[in-house]
Design goal:
6% of the residues lie in helices and 43% in strands. The protein contains 1 helix and 32 strands. Strands 10, 12, 13, 15, 16, 17, 20, 23, 26, 28, 30 and 32 form a 12-stranded parallel sheet that branches. Strands 14-11-31-29-27-24-21-18 form an 8-stranded parallel sheet, with no helix packed on it. It is elongated and about 60 Å long.
């Protein structure tokens, strides 16, 4: 497996190509002679490393790549496994870089340890499963655990919920104020496949008429920021998923009012809502539910930190 994927387009200029082998390799044979990157006839300088746990080689370019060009990565037959068996043939793949705009990460600070954080209350019904810390500040109410199960710690109106709320406000304002790499959108995102970027709506956003796919296009560092002036709504049974090697840890939803996830829906990313976040029965989130002012309501909900 490689990243970026073969023939990927709009790849970030900051990408570090990787190749994952099907067997353990002799790391002494994984180097800049056996793992190369070219743009046309020009060789890209960089550093090659090998992770023996994942069997993954990484080429880290010395400088950012150039936007809008085709690059060719190659693993040569000089690469050998731990039994001194070489690759049967060179493995080569190409990809094309996109624009030079890079979405910088949102820094969550202490709020990043929380799967659920609310300003007013956390209320649970049914056998919810929450993996990560749970907190409320400045109020203190947490109800419904049990029957809900928490794999983490509760912080009702006490530290570190106070500092987490402060860091959440900083992260929320950061996302709301972003302008670089901006794409204007509004309304229903159902049925769309979106590459990494900053997506901003002057109104609401929803996932209603179909599922939403986020395509990292082979970049494990790909980031998405969705910033909306009002509410976020995900309809019953709708899914938001990531393909192309992306991570839920790099998806952020800045919600100007409240967020609602419907019955049986599945969602990814960190929700940062100004007001409330509500989960209908059986909703699943790989990410965080962070509400600045109002409550987070759970109902047989599964939330796992990314």
């Amino acid at each position: 497996m490689t990243t970026p994927l073969a023939n990927a387009n709009n790849v970030a200029v900051t990408v570090s190509p990787t190749a994952t082998f099907s067997r353990a390799m002799n790391m002494l044979t994984i180097n800049t002679l056996t793992f190369t990157l070219f743009q046309g006839l020009t060789q890209v300088t960089g550093i090659v490393s090998y992770n023996s746990v994942t069997n993954t080689a990484t080429f880290d370019p010395t400088m950012d790549l150039v936007t809008g060009l085709v690059y060719t990565a190659t693993i040569t037959t000089g690469a050998q496994d731990t039994n001194s068996v070489a690759l049967a043939m060179d493995h080569t793949w190409t990809f094309t870089t996109g624009n030079a705009c890079v979405v910088e990460p949102i820094i969550l600070g202490t709020s990043g340890a929380f799967a659920v954080l609310a300003g007013a209350a956390v209320t649970n019904t049914g056998p919810s499963m929450i993996t990560g810390d749970l907190g409320v500040y400045p109020l203190t109410s947490i109800t419904g655990f049990p029957p809900g199960v928490l794999v983490g710690n509760q912080y009702p109106g006490i530290a570190p919920s106070d500092s987490a709320q402060g860091d959440l406000t900083i992260a929320y304002n950061d996302a709301a104020g972003r302008t670089m790499c901006l794409t204007s959108i509004v309304g229903d995102l159902g049925g769309m496949t979106l590459p990494p970027g900053l997506y901003k709506s002057t109104g609401f956003l929803s996932v209603v008429t179909g599922d939403l796919v986020l395509d990292a296009q082979g970049d494990p560092n790909a980031r998405w920021i969705f910033s909306m002036a009002s509410e976020l709504t995900v309809a019953n049974s709708r899914q938001v998923t990531i393909i192309g090697g992306g991570s839920a840890a790099n998806v952020f939803w800045q919600v100007g009012s409240s967020a609602t996830l419907g019955t049986g829906s599945s969602f990814v990313g960190t929700i940062m809502a100004d007001q409330s976040i509500s989960f209908a029965t059986g909703a699943v989130l790989r990410g965080r539910a962070l509400a600045r002012i109002a409550a987070v309501t759970l109902d047989s909900t599964t939330i796992t930190l990314p």
